[in-house]
Amino acid sequence: MTEQRTGVPARFGVFLAAGVGTAGLVALMAPTVRGITVVPPCLFHTVTGLDCPFCGGTRATRALLTGDVGAAADFNILVPLLAVVAIALGGWWLAARTERVSFDGAAAVLRSRAVWLGIVAALALFWVLRNLPWLGYLSSGG
Q1: What's the DSSP call for residue 38?
Q2: Residues near 30 by beta carbon (within 8 Å), at least 6 away in sequence
Q3: Relative to the CA of 80, which of 45, 60, 61, 138 has its CA 20 to 30 Å away?
Q4: Is this prediction's pTM over 0.90?
């Protein structure tokens, strides 16, 4: 009888790492190439003058990749926070490649409707708060 493996295939991790690495390089190099802006401006910000939850994300990612955590947090506080979460999940995923760590608990949490509704509610709250005049430090900074 053969042992059936469960979980994420190793090649998925390779593709995920390649995708994240490519996105990081694009964000690092994208703001201008030979004087031409590569990343288009946020359509929501252009039309309304308000920040969406992701405004400043590209600049924050570039700042984070160059080691300027303060500037990254100034552009969009979600980027450094999500970077910490991504690093933790990546470490957990690598640890799960051994027999000692399991994703069973995390899988149950990710299947929870309440968790996803909480994430959406937190994102909506951040969207509103970053556009309030007295919380200007949450804006995208430019």
Answers
A1: -
A2: 38, 39, 58, 62
A3: 45
A4: no
As a whole number of angstroms, the distance between CA 57 and CA 78 comes to: 8
Tell whether the model's pLDDT for residue 7 goes beyond 60.
Answer: no
Length of the chain: 142
| Beta strands in 52-110, from DSSP E residues, in sequence order | none
Q: Which two tokens stand for residue 73?
A: 């947090």
Categorize the per-residue pLDDT at 67 as very low, low, confident or very high, splitting at 50, 70 and 90.
confident
φ/ψ of 33, rounded to 5, equals -130, 110
Here the tokens at position 109 are: 């949490």
Q: Given this model, what pLDDT does residue 120 score?
A: 92
Examine the pLDDT at 16 and tell me if it is beyond 60. yes
